[in-house]
Amino acid sequence: MLCIGCTAEVEHLAEAVSGKDSLLFMHSRGINTFISDSGVMRYHMVVEEWDIYNGQGGEPATWKFMKGMLMERFDEKFHVDLFVQSDTAYLHRQQLWELRGRVVVRNVNGDVFRTEELFWDLDAHEMWNHQYIHITTPERELEGTEFRSNEQMTRYAVRNSIGVFPVKETEAGGADSLSTAPRRAEGQP
Question: Would 122 be classed as within a structural domain?
Answer without folding.
Answer: yes
